[in-house]
TrEMBL record:
<dbReference type="GO" id="GO:0034039">
    <property type="term" value="F:8-oxo-7,8-dihydroguanine DNA N-glycosylase activity"/>
</dbReference>
<comment type="similarity">
    <text>Belongs to the FPG family.</text>
</comment>
<keyword id="KW-0479">Metal-binding</keyword>
<dbReference type="Pfam" id="PF01149">
    <property type="entry name" value="Fapy_DNA_glyco"/>
</dbReference>
<dbReference type="InterPro" id="IPR010979">
    <property type="entry name" value="Ribosomal_uS13-like_H2TH"/>
</dbReference>
<dbReference type="InterPro" id="IPR035937">
    <property type="entry name" value="FPG_N"/>
</dbReference>
<dbReference type="Pfam" id="PF06831">
    <property type="entry name" value="H2TH"/>
</dbReference>
<dbReference type="InterPro" id="IPR000214">
    <property type="entry name" value="Znf_DNA_glyclase/AP_lyase"/>
</dbReference>
<keyword id="KW-0456">Lyase</keyword>
<keyword id="KW-0227">DNA damage</keyword>
<keyword id="KW-0326">Glycosidase</keyword>
<keyword id="KW-0238">DNA-binding</keyword>
<dbReference type="GO" id="GO:0008270">
    <property type="term" value="F:zinc ion binding"/>
</dbReference>
<dbReference type="Pfam" id="PF06827">
    <property type="entry name" value="zf-FPG_IleRS"/>
</dbReference>
<dbReference type="InterPro" id="IPR012319">
    <property type="entry name" value="FPG_cat"/>
</dbReference>
<protein>
    <submittedName>
        <fullName>Formamidopyrimidine-DNA glycosylase</fullName>
        <ecNumber>3.2.2.23</ecNumber>
        <ecNumber>4.2.99.18</ecNumber>
    </submittedName>
</protein>
<dbReference type="GO" id="GO:0006284">
    <property type="term" value="P:base-excision repair"/>
</dbReference>
Amino acid sequence: MPEMPEVEALVHWLQAQLEGAVVVEIEPASFAVLKTYDPPVSSFAGLTVSGVTRHGKFIDIDVDGLHLVIHLAKAGWLRWSDHFGDSRVKMGGPLALRFRVDRGSGPHEGFDLTEAGTRKGLAVYAVRDPHEVPGIERLGPDPLAPGFELRPLLQRRMQVKRLLRDQTVVAGIGNAYSDEILHAARLSPFAIAEKLDDDEIARLEEAVTSVLTEAVAAADGKPAADLKDAKRERMRVHGRAGQTCEVCGDTVAEVVFADSSLQYCPTCQTGGTILKDRSTSKFLK
């Protein structure tokens, strides 16, 4: 799943590709992808892209005051093409939507939104104001925004892993970077946020800033096609169960849930304790 650093890089890259381009057509290829009907996507044709921004993990393409807002969800992605043909898109398959533009050399450039798998979560909204999108309206503060403070957000009886992933609490952090942040902060993912002491909070605040800042810097400037591989290469614990922790040499462990998983280092984060998952109905903190 793309998270804030990859979405930020996508936004910068799309800005360079799309600013000043004229929208030729927006073609949905899935009945489920388009979540709005007013304004119709046909109203974007002939208008000019004036900017691309980010709200949490949402991509916002400003087209002369109309907004096409995209949430890539778990399995969505964006693929750029310089050579679209003239044929129209077909319904079904991994293709969800085509955004075709003219950058001065004809109507054959733009991007496809695709989504793998059968569980469809990719969502596109055509709106006049991005805050009309329910997910944007509910977003918590952005962790890299000026003046962001994590400490007041921790006064909740929630596992810190869950808190970091909750978009209404903190915008943009997902499963992968919450694993990385907690590893850098040397905290158990099952620690309760409101029970963290001052030293633990300070480590967590530092980890949020450093992990996300470094990830944004590493992703920035990379084309969309390279972002997934670059993200995987940066991970120290996420997606690396069974591998060696680069910090202490222990083996990275994993907790598996019904539809997701988390990874952590027992030595760095839990004092050597192996965390149990839902299949045992026990959570060690």
